[in-house]
Amino acid sequence: MAKTKEIILDPLSDNNPITIQILGICSALAVTVKMETAAVMAIALTVVLTLSNVAMSLLRTVTPGRIRMIVEMSVIASLVIVADQFLRAYLFDISRQLSVFVGLIITNCIVMGRA
Q1: In this structure, is residue 44 part of a structural domain?
Q2: What is the pTM of this model?
Q3: What stretches of 1-115 show up as alpha helix (H) in DSSP?
Q4: Which residues form the domain of 104?
């Protein structure tokens, strides 16, 4: 009986990839009060996520497994810093509204990359 319950409930709660993906974008959803900020955050998240996945795909063969997570975090952090500086330079008002949430793109990418 316990095994049947586990088989039924496990995909709904613990091993649900959709839930993991939604939890990964919670910080992005926190700033979606205005359309401008939501669009900028979505674009920044998409660009950083795409570039980090491309970079990690290229680095996968030359990176030892022991330090792969450190390299992944470094790549994502570097891309987030570039995105933040770009927002500060060209979209200063929106950058002020997004403030710390741009930095949380790092956690979004790590959660979505590991899900």
Answers
A1: yes
A2: 0.71
A3: 2-13, 17-24, 26-30, 35-59, 68-90, 92-98, 105-114
A4: 24-114
